[in-house]
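Exercise: predict the fold of this chain.
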Amino acid sequence: MIQRFDRLRIIGCMAFLCLGANTAFAGDEKLLNACFAQSALAAVPGEETAAKGNRSFDASIKLNGFTPASPVPDALRGAVRRVTLPAGEKAVALTFDLCEQRGEVAGYDGRIFDYLRQQGIKATFFAGGKWMVSHASRTEQLLADPLFEIGNHTETHANLRLLQPAAVTQQVLAPQKAYQDARARLAARQCVSSSVEAMSSIPEQPKLFRFPYGACNDASMKAVNDAGMLAIQWDVATGDPDPRVPAARIAEAMVNETKPGSIIVNHANGRGWHTAEALLIAIPKLKAKGYKFVTVSELMTMGKPVITSECYDRKPGDTNRYDFLGALQHSLSAPKVALAPSSAQKPAAKTKPAKKSPQKPVAADH
């Protein structure tokens, strides 16, 4: 008779088969060293700052010649929040979002990557398709690095619940194509000639997906799973997109809320305002607690994924506010039509404008 956790491991093996056959889930150290000098990998001051108003990369990614992967099995459809591990196993997956919307070029917080490499910490980065295009060299570095894996975070960080089917398809598949193009560029470089076999360690397409804002519906979940990706959420949200949240509080969330099999969400595109500093606090403390750091793909092979049919941040329904914010943003961006007063109308009497109450900034989560 199969014991309870043996059955869990079988499900984990199903996840492994779904995620990409019998090889590693990330790059190769020999390949990374052959193609990138340490100086090229290092942080560049100011690179983490978003360039607002830059529309150089706003054009939609063309999907010509792209073929999606096979659909995800029924047992793995839905939102993966964490993984139930065998007793005594202490592993955690650090994840970072690399979002970029139209009308901007988001940042690359090199301090985060430098520290993770220095400490030998594995992590998963959910990159937008537009971000991968505007950060082509950095994307190739992430592909080559055996510590890191890349997941899909839509083309332009759109709320998929508000889009028509054709737009959902574009948002879901465009990052797959951008990733595939980046992988092809890396494979064509002269530095790969001495490590051709190392390219086999890099998946041909991302196998993981993260919904912007943590918001989904049945149609968008189906689109993601049908494209061969597992929908990965989190069970530890640090609040790092809010500039008012200090490093100490971000670190506290990581240390105190993490459990074996947890998935932690942060940001590495310059919108994790104090994330780099928080990692310096949290990672040593998590290590002292006995945690090892793995990629999401590796975590999925270690136990039973906890899957829900609904997407949310901390509790069901808490991402509904983004539907309102998305609709409001659309209405504000719509062209205004000015009506000329008729000759019979008298000018309105001037009134003293009312004082506006200060508005709190709204963090664009995940």
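Check your answer against the key: The longest strand covers residues 91-98.
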